Every structure is written in structure tokens, then in C-alpha cells.
């Protein structure tokens, strides 16, 4: 599952950089209607976003806490600013239409099927709660603060997202027009329709672009630390190089540069097919979900067999098993759905090929472990014991 976690975070990093890059491209379309967006423009912007994140994770690494605290403040103020603007300026739909009318826009033949496939869009923003875990070695009292941070972040952002989605549904207006927005991002069209001002819509959308860009900064930090730690356990090829921290640096430079290289290479897929790149997003989802499923499954097994658990400063108490079971059931359903294509009758070019890449990585990782990893791999528990001796 370590390999799936590496795959999930590396592809997530590429996906967030791509989203930020193409959002910048969307802003250009919004302000210059005569501009004709090209796939390679989006690719170059994606690489630029990834490079921006590398600079902050290397030269400005010591400033990361201050930067992320500043972004948090911007996030909160931007949320309420956009929320109020939409409610005040947008023509609002009827509550009955918002909460009771459903359409099978994907052509799945049933509202239920369309809902199951569409639920993935709501799951993706809530993934990655384990990001802070991969930075735990750089935190104080991580065993106590990390679980609280993970839960509070998910709760608050989930609540904010729920409020914004409801607002968006009331203010979306003509759905077909919004989906067909030349910017490529419906929210930009909603901002424009609501404010009737290109500059106002640009200002509102810019906050979201900033949030997406800085989320990539955090993802680079997480992805590189996760790769570094896995390499330190001798679990990947060229482990000594990936796990090296150069003298004078407090960050794994080689792992960070590798993360940048992977994001840049994956962004090249967009030049040939944007649909193919969307499969990378699906791959990120399934890879991370599989690592969650196995981890939670182990907890269920130990709790159901009354096996002893490691001592912890944070515990769910008697609710632990119930929470684990509900989580496992939900994650398994989402895991299966994440391999679904975007429509019920896809052509080969529209097919979600993430399952092929997922299977290839799974086979390679098992083969690598059997032929090499069994002789070199040292898990994190063994590493901690060495430090304690």
C-alpha cells in the first residue's frame, strides 16, 4: 500500500497543478474573449505552477508555516466574500427546484446511477486528510495534534463546502450555459453572470486560483516527504538518492525535484488528450482510497479480534470500531465508482484507463517487493527502534 500512497500523492500533485494552471488559462479567456486556448498553453502553465511550488518548498521552506497561515486567512475571508456576493447579486432559483429536481445529465439511464458517478466530484475535495501525517516528523507532539488537525480541517472545510454548494445551486442560473463556459470552469461563468462585470468576476475567481495554487504547494511538500520516507525504508528503486537530504538543507531536495518532474511529465498528456489527463485525477483518487481502505481494514481486524493497539494520545474510544466499519463501507463503494468512465458508452479515447495504470503499478510493486524488497525493506517501526537504541 506504500506504493499506492506514493502513486496517489504524486498524481494528486500533478492534478492540482493542472487545475491551477488551466484555471489561470480560464481567467485569460474571461478577460480576452478573442484568445483561443491551446492545450500546450495549459501544460506550460501547469509546469509553471509546479515550479512555483518547488521554489517555496526549497528556498522558502522555512517560511511555509507563515505562508500557509496567511493562505488560511485569505481562504476564510474569500469564502465569506464570495458567499455574500453571490447571495446579494445573483438571481436565485426556487428552493423546490434546488432540492427536489434531479436530472440525468450523464445519460446513465437513472437518477441513482448518475448520482453515484457524480458523487466523486464531492469526494475528491475531501481526500488527502493524511497530508499532515507525512509531515509528522517535522511537527511537535504530532500524535496529539495531528488527529485533531485532520478532523477539524475536514469538518470545517466540509461545512464550508456544503454551504457553498447550496449557494451555487441557488445562483447557477442557466445550467447549460454555465457548463458550456468558454473558460472551461463553470464557477467563473457563474461569477460573471452574477456580477455582470468581468473585473469583479476576475477578482472573485482569482481567490480560488490562489487557493488552488497554494494547495499544490502543500501537495508538493506532502508528496516529497512521503516519497522520501518510503525511500528511506528502501522500498523504491534508487532509494539512497530519493532519501538524501543534502548538507545545509532541511528538506529532501531530490524527492522534491522528482515530484516536480513527475508533475511536469504528466502534464504533457494534456497536449494529446485532456480526457486522458482526467484519468490521472481518477488514478489519484483510487490510489489514495486503496491506501485508506487497507489501513482502516487493519484497524477493523485488530479491534474485532480484541488484538492490542499501539498506545496513542488520541483515541475514538468505544466509537472506534463503528466509525471504522462505516468508513470502510463508504470507501469501498467510492473506490469502485472511481474507475467508472464519464459516460455510459465511452469511446476508447473517452475511456477511464486509470484501472490499467493502477493494475500495472500494483503488479510492479508486488514484483519489486518479492525480488528485491524482501531483502532490503525496513519498515518505519524498525527505523524508529533503531533511533531509540
TrEMBL record:
Pfam families: AA_permease_2. Keywords: Membrane, Transmembrane, Transmembrane helix, Transport. GO terms for cellular component: membrane. The chain crosses the membrane at residues 40-60, 72-90, 110-133, 154-175, 201-222, 253-277, 283-301, 321-341, 353-371. It is a multi-pass membrane protein. It is found in: Membrane. It comes from Fusarium oxysporum f. sp. raphani 54005. It comes from the Eukaryota. InterPro entries: AA/rel_permease1 (IPR002293). One of its GO terms (molecular function) is transmembrane transporter activity. This is Choline transport protein.
Amino acid at each position: 500500500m506504500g506504493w499506492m500512497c506514493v502513486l496517489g500523492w504524486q498524481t494528486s500533485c500533478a492534478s492540482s497543478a493542472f487545475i491551477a494552471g488551466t484555471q489561470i488559462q480560464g481567467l485569460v479567456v474571461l478577460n480576452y474573449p478573442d484568445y483561443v486556448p491551446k492545450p500546450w498553453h495549459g501544460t506550460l502553465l501547469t509546469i509553471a505552477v509546479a515550479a512555483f511550488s518547488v521554489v517555496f518548498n526549497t528556498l522558502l521552506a522555512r517560511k511555509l508555516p507563515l505562508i500557509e497561515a496567511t493562505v488560511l486567512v485569505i481562504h476564510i475571508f474569500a469564502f465569506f466574500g464570495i458567499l455574500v456576493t453571490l447571495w446579494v447579486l445573483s438571481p436565485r432559483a426556487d428552493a423546490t427546484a434546488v432540492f427536489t429536481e434531479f436530472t440525468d445529465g450523464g445519460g446513465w439511464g437513472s437518477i441513482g446511477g448518475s448520482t453515484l458517478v457524480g458523487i466523486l466530484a464531492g469526494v475528491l475535495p475531501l481526500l488527502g486528510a493524511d497530508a499532515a501525517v507525512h509531515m509528522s516528523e517535522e511537527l511537535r507532539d504530532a500524535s496529539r495534534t495531528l488527529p485533531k488537525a485532520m478532523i477539524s480541517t475536514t469538518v470545517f472545510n466540509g461545512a464550508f463546502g456544503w454551504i457553498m454548494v447550496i449557494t451555487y445551486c441557488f445562483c447557477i442560473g442557466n445550467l447549460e450555459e454555465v457548463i458550456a463556459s468558454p473558460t472551461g470552469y463553470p464557477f467563473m461563468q457563474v461569477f460573471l453572470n452574477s456580477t455582470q462585470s468581468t473585473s469583479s468576476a476576475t477578482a472573485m475567481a482569482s481567490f480560488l486560483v490562489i487557493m488552488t495554487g497554494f494547495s499544490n504547494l502543500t501537495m508538493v511538500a506532502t508528496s516529497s516527504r512521503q516519497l522520501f520516507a518510503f525511500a528511506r525504508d528502501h522500498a523504491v528503486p534508487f532509494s539512497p538518492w530519493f532519501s538524501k537530504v543534502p548538507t545545509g538543507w532541511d528538506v529532501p531536495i531530490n524527492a522534491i525535484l522528482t515530484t516536480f518532474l513527475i508533475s511536469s511529465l504528466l502534464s504533457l498528456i494534456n497536449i494529446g488528450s485532456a480526457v486522458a489527463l482526467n484519468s490521472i485525477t481518477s488514478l489519484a483518487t483510487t490510489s489514495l482510497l486503496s491506501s485508506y481502505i487497507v489501513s482502516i481494514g487493519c484497524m477493523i481486524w485488530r479491534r474485532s479480534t480484541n488484538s492490542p493497539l499501539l498506545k496513542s494520545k488520541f483515541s475514538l474510544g468505544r466509537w472506534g470500531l463503528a466509525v471504522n466499519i462505516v468508513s470502510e463501507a463508504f470507501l469501498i463503494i467510492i473506490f469502485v465508482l472511481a474507475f467508472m468512465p464519464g459516460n455510459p458508452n465511452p469511446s476508447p479515447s473517452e475511456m477511464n484507463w486509470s484501472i490499467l495504470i493502477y493494475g500495472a503499478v500494483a503488479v510492479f510493486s508486488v514484483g519489486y517487493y518479492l525480488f528485491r524488497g524482501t531483502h532490503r525493506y525496513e519498515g518505519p517501526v524498525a527505523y524508529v527502534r533503531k533511533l531509540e537504541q
